[in-house]
Amino acid sequence: MLNKQLLSPKSIAVIGASNDVSKPGGKILLNLQEHKYKGKLYAVNPRDPEIQGIKTFAKVDELPMIDLAILAIPAKLCPQTVEILAHTKKTKAFIVISAGFSEESEQGAEWERQMVETVKSVGGVLIGPNCIGALTPEYAGVFTSPIPKFDPKGCDFVSGSGATAVFIMESGIPKGLHFANVFSVGNSAQIGVEEVLEYWDKTYDPETSAPVKMLYVESIHNPDKFLWHASSLIRKGCKIAGIKAGSSEAGSRAASSHTGAMTSSDSAVEALFRKAGIVRCYGREELTTVASIFMFEELKGKNMAIITHAGGPAVMLTDALEDGGLRIPRLPDTKVKAALKDKLFPGSSVENPIDFLATGNAEQLGAIIDACENDFDDIDGMAVIFGSPGLQPVTDVYKVLSDKMKTCKKPIYPILPSVINVQKDVAYFISSGNVNFPDEVLLGRALTKVYRTPKPSDENIYLEGVDVAEIRRVVESCENGYMPPEKIHALLKAASIPFAQERVVQSVDEAAEAAKELGFPLVMKVVGPVHKTEVGGVSLNIRDEDMVRKEFARLMKIKGTTAVLMAEQAEGIELFIGASYQDKFGHVMLCGMGGIFVEVFKDVTSGLAPLTFPEAHSMIRNLKAYKIINGYRGMEGVDKDKFAEIIVRLSSMLRFAVEIKEMDLNPLLGKGDRILAVDARIRIEK
Amino acid sequence: MLNKQLLSPKSIAVIGASNDVSKPGGKILLNLQEHKYKGKLYAVNPRDPEIQGIKTFAKVDELPMIDLAILAIPAKLCPQTVEILAHTKKTKAFIVISAGFSEESEQGAEWERQMVETVKSVGGVLIGPNCIGALTPEYAGVFTSPIPKFDPKGCDFVSGSGATAVFIMESGIPKGLHFANVFSVGNSAQIGVEEVLEYWDKTYDPETSAPVKMLYVESIHNPDKFLWHASSLIRKGCKIAGIKAGSSEAGSRAASSHTGAMTSSDSAVEALFRKAGIVRCYGREELTTVASIFMFEELKGKNMAIITHAGGPAVMLTDALEDGGLRIPRLPDTKVKAALKDKLFPGSSVENPIDFLATGNAEQLGAIIDACENDFDDIDGMAVIFGSPGLQPVTDVYKVLSDKMKTCKKPIYPILPSVINVQKDVAYFISSGNVNFPDEVLLGRALTKVYRTPKPSDENIYLEGVDVAEIRRVVESCENGYMPPEKIHALLKAASIPFAQERVVQSVDEAAEAAKELGFPLVMKVVGPVHKTEVGGVSLNIRDEDMVRKEFARLMKIKGTTAVLMAEQAEGIELFIGASYQDKFGHVMLCGMGGIFVEVFKDVTSGLAPLTFPEAHSMIRNLKAYKIINGYRGMEGVDKDKFAEIIVRLSSMLRFAVEIKEMDLNPLLGKGDRILAVDARIRIEK
């Protein structure tokens, strides 16, 4: 985990420092000085005796004891340098800017391993290599610009890509997004995104820690750790927005006809983010917009008031919010509403959007916000649109807006579109600690995305009726490959998954006995003949013992019949549950309606095992076919609690059967609370 | 239509001019002067003898002859002022900035009508009232800022909202979007968006006209005119991007169970834009991004090369493009590729994305672009991502990029994300006439949207086998309300729509005769008994005359049977075609698969009647259920040409039957080229 030498070093040495600030070793020293690092700062350079006015040593051996070393020297020199520092200078923190390691060659990978080994041997930490560095409250240890304004209650940010981290900051800063700590983890040799999350989680203090975390991730090495700390942080009150780039590569993999195999690695990421409660973003603009939204009080409900001095943007925002599931309700016709209308200019509208016209002023804006805050109880949040055609100053309006944003309990999202006309006013507004959303539609979409992201799920594994010992016995008794039917039955029984039961009987009394065990209605089929239907060897809807006896006699007379198979008759809506094991992620569960619903409409939702009941319910609710499952046009639906229970049980079962690489219950037939798996395929790979 | 006095006035008078530039009448005079209007400029103001150094008259009566008058005086004074100018000063063009007309009160609407009448009586034009004015190559006749740089080959823009127009320009200018003419039509008293489109269409000259048009529309008064001129412009080589705000209000209307009634007014807009070939946008950022894309050569195919010096943004752009249907193909392993790799630094990748590393330089960028332009034939366009971490200057890189953008035949979209680090370089890049897309994902989404927008459809009405005279006879013979079955049959027959035919027969010879007419297979049902199935009164799959005779005899013996109904037996996939008449738009046609596909999955596409074959095919192809219609997993599909023909014929029929307000063919059953309408409902309202 990150240590105090990295976070609050008493001394920093820049190895490979330079007077040329267009070089990383020059720029990083400049940044450290310009942003007022208060500890002792040293430079190492074999040629220059003084660099940027800083005491410079020709060799690392000559340095005094050093807490943090920042290396900007050729890769091949790094391992030895790290070793000297670690072993003779008590250095416990390293940031290796240099590239040319595992990302480039096998030799580089070896150097990287050597450094990690050395660092580990002294209990230190290593950031990088191949990164831009770190920004903390204490120092600006990056070789890039811009250096964002430090704000302990701003945004913590960890990025798997250095350049992308810069571009993300460049997207956030103009919106007014502030940053606390920024870590660029580069090759993640020792410290990756997961370790930074771990540190943030373990040290989280609601009073002092940054309440918002941003992630840019290209690969997740340890999904369990990622999930654990991300969801823990969110449970502690933190909010996390993240990009996991690379969805399309996975998405373009040839779709398999086997539903369980439909889970791409991107669906695993999707499921992981959802389980953790992270808002998944797909671009820099969206990421910084969501992080900016996180700077506000949480929207408690779905009703928004839009307050505007111009019609168009309010209409577009209404479209975007309603489209994403938020609501712009009509305001109730009360005295308050009438009184508010009186305070506005003629022609203003106090419906919702509240349009107080191009001539609307600061005082009116204050009155509208107050009414929404105090009087319109249904309203959960506000969006205020106020630009300028370039005539009147807007300073007083932005002042009122800024004040109200700080005092109101309901969140107020400002949309100040006139980034040219009132550039200075917008800049002042931002410099007062506010964020701005210049485009209402981008805000609207991000806001609905935040609103729709579920809370992290809890960690309990549901084990009622799940016989773990028996599950292990069955799995261990299986060979690699597809499990035989009897093993599948045994396995599903151990997890209390209802499966259409079967009995093969050879006498009429056996048949009557089996019927009692199986219950009615029943299906009876001949055993022996190949084309069962054509020889009249299938009887459906057997409803009583009398019918059992008659049909048994009839069936046994059919040529080639050696016995009769009796099975529970499943009926109702066709459902499926699938799962596939994804390396490191574990089992990704899928559910949906079977057949064309999954194959043509791709109507599938996913979750990461083990699942909780709320998660399973959310998977079911998010199906497009939810209406059908819920009972549609007189057709009886499926008991959703029962369906959810089956999904949860299966996910618990899989947790103890990692040898199961693919599982496919397809179909399950469901009507009311009677849901029966009719067919199942399970593939084992040990 | 717009006249030369409005577009190139020899003289302009600002009525209500002021020395106070925070007032519209002051600011507009300032804009006219600052942006060097070359004609004669006069001011009218009863109090000040000189305003902003301009010759000022106390009353309009004192003015000389005036081409264009811009009114910024109280609404109630406008009608009289217009009258004096029109009748005594030969003024033929008016821009009425003032508000307080039809948008505010009945009195205002009356003043507005008076002005229009006066202006029409002298053959003049009126822009507004309640608008920000107009920007043309000759003058800056708006009271707002910013005044964008004039570029005759930039973007023409017409807006139904003044403030929104300002905000849209403020969104476009920082991207480098240039403008030619801008019209704010306000209340559209005489000149609306349609009339501006008409003018652009009629005067379009590929050599001199602006090749890109942007629209912001809140309501479409004359969809026919809108469609005609927009599609005509696009056929002439123009590109149009538009926002029609207000989709959600319509979207939230209670969904009707009647499919034909599912067409909301927004689906009419959607169908109109698609038919015209306009790229529909949903926000300012998207609109100006699409308009910026229009400034490039058209992307001829779907294969893009991504050229980048940073991995992250390239991955995110790949995701966005692939997600939207464009492709980032692997580059072929050729000598060219090997030679290109040799020119780049070690560690660079010449797969696609082509990553030439953080250290990549201008020369390398040039080589990569040249290879994509000349050697990689599969590549249709390029996106270049180049930001800066703040170390090296990027001037030479941006110079190469700018040069290549001007000389290459394939479009090159620049993504310069470092809007802070290299602010000046980006500004210089833009000032050289280039646009910039700061966010790769927003570009990616807009680019795929442009790529997927179909070309405008042609205007021919398909009339083969559509008996217009008979259609009129049938419609005219109907009362208001739902048409009786025999009328529906007659109507569909007149349009050559295959409908499951029926005959009621009372003798066995009649039955045999009917069978010959109807063809096999047949359905035979008893006429008389209520519960036909329960009494065994329904026979399916009648395949020859012999069976007809036997079944007739059997059915007639069933108690209560008075006759036998014989009908063509339809089978196959369930389809539906619906239509509803939308005020001013005409008939919006819908198609899809029936039942839950439309009701649960909302899998419906729409188009505006009359439809062409390419449009109908596009409607079918865009259904999610297309795979099923196409034949799925051994299940025979439907002949798409036949299905398209039925849709087209119905749309032609409706063109001559505006009295049909709702039509619902549900289901049609289709298998191969045999598609039969089985049930139809048509509602007439004259």
Automatic annotation (TrEMBL), chains A, B:
It comes from the Bacteria. InterPro entries: ATP-grasp (IPR011761), ATP_grasp_subdomain_1 (IPR013815), CoA-bd (IPR003781), NAD(P)-bd_dom_sf (IPR036291), Succ_CoA_lig_flav_dom (IPR032875), Succinyl-CoA_synth-like (IPR016102). Keywords: ATP-binding, Nucleotide-binding, Transferase. It comes from Prolixibacter denitrificans. This is Acetyl-CoA synthetase. Gene3D superfamilies: ATP-grasp fold, A domain, ATP-grasp fold, B domain, NAD(P)-binding Rossmann-like Domain, Succinyl-CoA synthetase domains. One of its GO terms (molecular function) is transferase activity. The keyword Transmembrane does not apply. Residues 489-525 form the ATP-grasp domain. SUPFAM superfamilies: Glutathione synthetase ATP-binding domain-like, NAD(P)-binding Rossmann-fold domains, Succinyl-CoA synthetase domains. PROSITE patterns: ATP_GRASP (PS50975). The keyword Membrane does not apply. It holds the Pfam family Succ_CoA_lig.
